[in-house]
Design brief:
CATH superfamily of the largest domain: Alpha/Beta hydrolase fold, catalytic domain
CATH topology of the largest domain: Rossmann fold
Pfam family, one: Peptidase_S9
Order of helices and strands: EEEEEEHEHHEHEHHEHEHH
Protein name: Peptidase S9 prolyl oligopeptidase catalytic domain-containing protein
Number of strands: 11
GO biological process, one term: proteolysis
InterPro entries: AB_hydrolase_fold (IPR029058), Peptidase_S9_cat (IPR001375), Serine_Prot_S9B/DPPIV (IPR050278)
GO molecular function: dipeptidyl-peptidase activity; serine-type peptidase activity
Helix content: 25-40%
Strand order of the largest sheet: 4-5-7-6-8-9-10-11
Oligomer: single chain
Length: 321
């Protein structure tokens, strides 16, 4: 650190895309961070505001658990006074990930902006267990994955609905991928009264089927936490899924190298045994992340149509015609 004479500054915010600059450190002293800085070069200039992109609003609230929870909300772009709008909760919720921060989301989460332009409220919340909040916060689901996250997400939705009358809690959908897909399923079995539709991408459905290095880090060995593994595995609780059709859509790449397709396969077996309806979209040539552009386009359109059919945004219906 003492011999450092240059540094790179990277900056973005919810409203401004990334900019990267190079600075030279001047003067003398043992701590370079306390010395003068001189602008040297621009490595990446921010293009400024992105046309058609409306940044989300950041919010926070004190939860019943004693933690302050943080989220962001995309308002419908054509918000009309007195009208209620369907809501999509976009979720990850697992360890080592933080979705809510003051960084530019325009490219990675442009889907959320698109949904807002089509008449949806879109909510993102970091529940207990997400990162950069300290050991107590991140360790909240130690030995009990799937048992605390939805409680925080529902509390966030109820907080926003009490504050904003345009949120229709009778039309709430949830969507996520990987751990977010897993929690989308958990939401539907734990709070079917809140979540009308769940769209689960590449979900873990049985923890004993997943990577032991990851799973046992948080859940311990299954022999010492049998009940936790049961409560955290949606495949073992298939009888709790709703009996009404068009409430569950599963998406999965057949070549998934991370969350193997067997997770979806075994869940389907238990759903059939329990007489529960489901909708399924398989991507035969895709792995854990969708890489082929045509598959990505198909996924985005299928997601929109499923929401439109089952949550009913009039704007989405009109624009899709």
């Amino acid at each position: 650190m003492q011999h450092c004479d240059m540094f790179i500054s990277r900056f973005s915010s919810q409203t401004l895309p990334h900019a990267v600059h190079l600075f030279k450190i001047k003067g003398t002293g043992p701590d370079p961070s306390q010395r003068d800085k001189e602008f040297w070069a621009t490595l990446l200039e921010s293009p400024g505001a992105v046309p058609g992109y409306v940044a989300p609003e950041m919010f926070s609230f004190p939860s019943r658990t004693g933690f302050t929870l943080y989220g962001m909300m995309y308002r419908p772009h054509q918000l009309q006074p007195g009208k209620k709008y369907p809501t999509v909760l976009y979720i990850y919720g697992g360890p080592q990930v933080q979705l809510v921060n003051n960084r530019f989301k325009g490219v990675k989460y442009f889907r959320l902006n698109t949904l807002a332009s089509l008449g949806y409220v879109v909510v993102v919340l970091d529940n207990r267990g997400s990162c950069h909040r300290g050991l107590k916060f991140e360790g909240a689901f130690k030995y009990k994955m799937g048992q605390v996250e939805i409680e925080d997400q529902v509390e966030g939705l109820q907080y926003l609905a009490a504050k904003h009358s345009f949120i229709d809690l009778d039309r709430v959908g949830i969507h996520g991928w990987s751990y977010g897909g897993y929690l989308s399923l958990m939401a539907l079995i734990q709070r079917p009264d809140i979540f009308k539709v769940a769209i689960a991408g590449a979900p873990v459905t049985l923890w004993i089927f997943y990577d032991t290095g990851y799973t046992e880090r948080y859940m311990g060995h299954p022999d010492q936490n049998e009940h936790g593994y049961y409560l955290g595995s949606v495949a073992m609780q298939a009888e709790k899924f709703p009996s009404e059709p068009s409430r569950l859509l599963l998406l999965h790449g057949l070549l998934d190298e991370n969350v193997h397709f067997a997770h979806t396969s075994i869940l389907l077996s238990f759903l059939v045994r329990s007489g529960k309806p489901y909708d399924l979209q398989i991507y035969p040539q895709e792995r854990h992340s969708i890489r082929v552009p045509e598959s990505g386009e198909h996924y985005e359109l299928h997601l929109l149509y499923y929401l439109q059919e089952n949550l009913g945004s009039h704007i989405a219906v009109t624009k899709s015609l």
